[in-house]
């Protein structure tokens, strides 16, 4: 049987059994809070993390500015869209008001149909004067 000496100095009967004592290996001089690390002596990962946080903060700020600008632009475009729709509706109303379809009256190229329409209206309503 192989006997080994424990860390405390007591022998063990088995190769696979050992008594383990956990020793606090933290140095008393090392700070436990990252904010206590002097600014000039930060480790590279801490500097990289600080830069990443700053970069993300700047990106968020830029995105918020872009969102504000887009919201302003969206308001202007919505207003313009509403005005254009109203203009189209008004033009369609006028177009429909003046559109007249006369069945049986054919249009011919290079000939004004206006005189034919006036003659037709004079036959329909002879008491109205032509302007």
Integer-rounded radius of gyration: 46 Å
- SSE string: EEHH
Net shape: rod-shaped
Largest sheet: 2 strands, antiparallel
Mean pLDDT: 76
Low-pLDDT parts are 1-7
Question: Which band does the percent of strand residues land in?
Answer: under 5%
Q: What does this protein structure show overall?
A:
This protein is mainly α. It has a domain at 42-119. It contains two helices and two strands, in the order ββαα. It has helices at 44-98, 114-124, and strands at 4-5, 11-12. A hairpin with a 5-residue loop joins β1 (4-5) and β2. The longest helix is centred in the middle third of the chain and has 55 residues, at 44-98. The termini are far apart.
Would you spell out the secondary-structure blueprint of this structure?
Blueprint: E1 4-5, E2 11-12, H1 44-98, H2 114-124
Antiparallel strand pairs: 1-2
Q: Could you list some keywords that capture this structure?
A:
131 residues, mainly alpha, two-stranded antiparallel ribbon, 2 helices, 2 strands, 3% strand, rod-shaped, disordered N terminus
